[in-house]
């Protein structure tokens, strides 16, 4: 993964365990006239470290991030795509807004220099499925090559849909997760116009404060998180390091509003319940939830959803929102947060929810406030909910031999 906390899994895991914030003032453009001047930007990323120089200009940043993370993930998994397995290796990378930076940049070129100066690579730069497409081409994966575009649930849906492809025998291995990079004038301006973003410009690192009484909106971030999902017997046979088992997945819709969740959390609750059913697990088998937790009013509905499904066990659950440290990575959020969920289980450490200083009576569960916590995690659940009323939940558990 890569995020505002750093490049690579180790840097990110160290950052969340230390309760660091990756939020700062916007440097990608001059935000002086914007009501929102803060974001979670990836720092010190050079695409030339991962991509041939002549190819870099054919891609927008969200694709650069995906290729870098694919290299990280394949190396971590010790997995090589060969002529023998290529047709059973697929790619499914979720994206929220795709190549918005390219759209803004090339539109300016058109306005200033005319239509003949539009690069022939413009369309491949911007279409969301080119994150998956470029990975497939560069690494030779000839199995399913597709994309999920479901706003903030994209990364979770990508992992869940990839899991189902393997379970159904469509393929044996999937490169799956989410990527996003849209810290641009239009994206910041658009979310600000929708009153969705924090305006805590004077204290960026304290701006993302999920479940806290004084939250005032989410902070936009960027990044990428990809996993190698593999059919279990194949992974065991090749001696792979296995972090966890994908146990269950569900998706559904609130069918309520274009940007707001259903007021009682009904859609999210049903999605959690469906994921538990898919995993054939009881609610009390879940020890940790990586919450969607955006630092908006929706934190209340997510809390309500958790209570409605987990009943008395909700008080025993340990819940955190790593968005308090990364910001909201939009289409990449589900991929990055799935990795954090698995690492929490693997290392026995729960990332905190930082900036939790004033409890909200409507959010009254254990959000692992401010400091990481040692804990044994048998199973972890990751929530993602997106504009358009779309919901996604994926469950991971300690691997068993059954």
UniProtKB/TrEMBL annotation:
Q: Which family does it belong to?
A: Belongs to the thiolase-like superfamily. Beta-ketoacyl-ACP synthases family.
Superkingdom, taxonomy of origin = Bacteria
Task: Spell out the SMART domains in the cross-references.
Answer: PKS_KS
Q: Where does the record place the Ketosynthase family 3 (KS3) domain?
A: 1-398
* Gene Ontology MF annotations: 3-oxoacyl-[acyl-carrier-protein] synthase activity
Q: What class of enzyme is it?
A: transferase
According to UniProt, the reaction catalysed is: a fatty acyl-[ACP] + malonyl-[ACP] + H(+) = a 3-oxoacyl-[ACP] + holo-[ACP] + CO2; (9Z)-hexadecenoyl-[ACP] + malonyl-[ACP] + H(+) = 3-oxo-(11Z)-octadecenoyl-[ACP] + holo-[ACP] + CO2
What EC designation does it have? Answer: 2.3.1.179
Function of the protein: Involved in the type II fatty acid elongation cycle. Catalyzes the elongation of a wide range of acyl-ACP by the addition of two carbons from malonyl-ACP to an acyl acceptor. Can efficiently catalyze the conversion of palmitoleoyl-ACP (cis-hexadec-9-enoyl-ACP) to cis-vaccenoyl-ACP (cis-octadec-11-enoyl-ACP), an essential step in the thermal regulation of fatty acid composition.
- This protein's pathway: Lipid metabolism; fatty acid biosynthesis
Q: Which UniProt keywords apply?
A: Acyltransferase, Fatty acid biosynthesis, Fatty acid metabolism, Lipid biosynthesis, Lipid metabolism, Transferase
Query: Known InterPro entries for this protein?
Result: 3-oxoacyl-ACP_synth-2 (IPR017568), Beta-ketoacyl_synthase (IPR000794), Ketoacyl_synth_AS (IPR018201), Ketoacyl_synth_C (IPR014031), Ketoacyl_synth_N (IPR014030), PKS_Beta-ketoAc_synthase_dom (IPR020841), Thiolase-like (IPR016039)
Whether Lipid metabolism counts among this entry's keywords is: yes
Name-wise, this protein is 3-oxoacyl-[acyl-carrier-protein] synthase 2
Q: State which residue ranges cross the membrane.
A: none
Lipid biosynthesis is among the record's keywords:
yes
């Amino acid at each position: 993964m890569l995020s505002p906390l750093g490049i690579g899994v180790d840097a990110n895991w160290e950052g969340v365990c230390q309760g660091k914030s990756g939020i700062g003032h916007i440097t990608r453009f001059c935000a002086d006239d914007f009501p929102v001047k803060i974001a979670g930007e990836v720092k010190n990323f050079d695409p030339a470290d991962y991509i041939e120089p002549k190819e870099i200009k054919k891609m927008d940043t969200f694709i650069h991030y995906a290729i870098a993370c694919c290299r990280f993930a394949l190396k971590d998994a010790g997995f090589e795509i060969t002529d023998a397995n290529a047709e059973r290796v697929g790619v499914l990378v979720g994206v929220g807004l795709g190549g918005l930076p390219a759209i803004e940049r090339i539109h300016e070129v058109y306005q200033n220099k005319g239509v003949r100066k539009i690069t022939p690579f413009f369309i491949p730069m911007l279409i969301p499925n080119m994150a998956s497409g470029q990975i497939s081409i560069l690494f030779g994966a000839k199995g399913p090559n597709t994309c999920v575009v479901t706003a903030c649930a994209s990364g979770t849906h990508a992992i869940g849909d990839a899991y189902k492809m393997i379970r159904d025998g469509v393929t044996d291995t999937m490169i799956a997760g989410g990527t996003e990079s849209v810290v641009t004038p239009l994206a910041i301006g658009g979310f600000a116009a929708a009153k969705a973003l924090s305006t805590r410009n004077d204290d960026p690192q304290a701006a993302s404060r999920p479940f806290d009484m004084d939250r005032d909106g989410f902070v936009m971030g960027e990044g990428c998180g990809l996993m190698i999902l593999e059919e279990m017997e194949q992974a065991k046979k090749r001696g792979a390091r296995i972090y966890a088992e994908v146990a269950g997945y569900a998706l559904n819709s609130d069918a309520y509003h274009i940007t707001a969740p259903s007021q009682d959390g009904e859609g999210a609750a049903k999605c959690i319940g469906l994921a538990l059913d898919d995993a054939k697990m009881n609610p009390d088998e879940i020890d940790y939830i990586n919450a969607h937790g955006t630092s908006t009013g929706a934190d209340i509905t997510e809390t309500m959803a958790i209570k409605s499904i987990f009943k008395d066990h909700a008080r025993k659950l340990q819940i955190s929102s790593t968005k308090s440290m990364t910001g909201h990575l939009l289409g990449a959020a589900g991929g990055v947060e799935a990795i954090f969920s698995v690492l929490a289980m693997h290392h026995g450490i729960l990332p905190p929810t930082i900036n939790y200083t004033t409890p909200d009576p409507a959010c009254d569960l254990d959000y692992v406030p401010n400091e990481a916590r040692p804990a044994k995690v048998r199973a972890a659940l990751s929530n993602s909910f997106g504009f358009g009323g779309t919901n996604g939940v994926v469950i991971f558990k300690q691997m068993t031999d059954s």
